[in-house]
Amino acid sequence: MKAARYYGNRDIRIEDIDAPAVEPGTVAIDVAWCGICGTDLHEYLDGPIFVPEHGHPHPISGESAPITLGHEFSGVVAELGEGVDDLQVGDHVVVEPYIIRDDVDTGPESHDYHLSPDMNFIGLGGRGGGLAERIVVKRRWVHPVSKDVPLDEAALIEPLSVAYHAVERSGVSAGQVALVGGAGPIGALTAAVLTALDVTVIVSELSELRRQRVLDAGVAAHAIDPSKVDVVEEVRRLTDGRGADVAFECTSVQPVLDTLVEALRPTGVLVIVSIWGKRAEIDLHKVVMKELDVGGTIAYVNSHPATIELVESGKIDLKPFITGKIGLDGLVEEGFDTLINRNETAVKILVSPSGEGL
Ligand SMILES: [Zn+2]
Predict the structure, then answer these.
(1) Which of 18, 48, 210, 294 is the most exposed place for a label (fewest CB within 10 A)?
(2) Does any domain span residue 55?
(3) What is the pLDDT of residues 91-135, one digit of tens each?
(4) How far is the CA of 72 from the centre of ligand 1 (A)?
């Protein structure tokens, strides 16, 4: 089968490799669509980061580069391993792409399996990836999705789960006002989850295209250009002087962080969603004087069922966020290069490893 394999910095190769075999307790999935994620771009430009370097096997997967990439994917069940009796061949599924130690409790009540030692992701730390025609995944990480949800949209459920978990961490409730700093893929999807939960969303975003996209998609009530408008004043104006109840940092840009701290109401909640490659400064006097809660969020934990429900019920339409579809052979030139050089026009580029649907 064809697979996109990461060898190292700026070295991704499309190769023919053996298709993986099902084992007891696993599910073979024919990948329909796989999204290209900012994390993949990071591995390509600045990595290896999550990918274990060649010769340094990951402690859980036992694998090192080259590894197959792709962790945001949907597909169709092709074969069931022994003991898997609650899925059927032909079912549509998405994968919660975790590589987690066998002795960690990953049951439905767990709130922290994603924070366990040596956690990594399928498609980064080994165990195959969505940028291949087929993958075999442990049943625990396979989530069925209604056939009413198109498979291309289902490929966005993974990044949507990131947004869902971030929103959950904020404790926001219906009727409140959220300020989202940045409308890249994760900012836009965070806005989508918030709007689906009847939260009023204000987005601050420099790019006009991105502002227009969240407004057109109906996932933001207001989209502000911080180069032209004083965001803090505008948020106060829109909240009768109170400030935002919750804020989401989705840019890893210092001035955005400062603005969010300023724009929050007393006892507001700030959630840091973006990955910061450097130290940031935060005005702790303001945090203290307003009794703000500042929290981080990473990936998701038991978030997929509720996220899938939001999509299946039609409360979130993922179609507006799909901005391109390509084959595996175009991964680097049409996919990575577009996202690196023209990231305003592209939100999510989907890859069809088999070429079907293009
Ligand atoms: Zn991702």
Answers:
(1) 18
(2) yes
(3) 999 999 999 999 999 999 999 999 999 999 999 999 999 999 999
(4) 6
Q: How far is the CA of 27 from the centre of ligand 1 (A)?
A: 21
The reply to whether 313 falls in a domain is no
pLDDT digits (tens, 9 = 90+) for 195-228: 999 999 999 999 999 999 999 999 999 999 999 9
Cα(73) to centroid of ligand 1, in Å? 10
CA 165 to ligand 1 centroid distance, Å: 14
Same domain, 217 and 288: yes
Overall domain count for the chain: 2
> Domain range spanning residue 285?
160-296
Residues 6 and 144 in one domain: yes
| Cut 0.85: pTM above it | yes
Is residue 12 domain-shared with residue 116, that is, in the same domain? Answer: yes
Could you tell me if residue 346 is inside a domain?
A: yes
CA 287 – ligand 1 centroid, Å = 30
Cα–chain-centroid distance for residue 247?
18
How many angstroms does the Cα of residue 156 sit away from the middle of ligand 1?
9
Q: What spacing in Å lies between the alpha carbon of 243 and ligand 1's midpoint?
A: 31
CA 38 to ligand 1 center in whole angstroms? 6
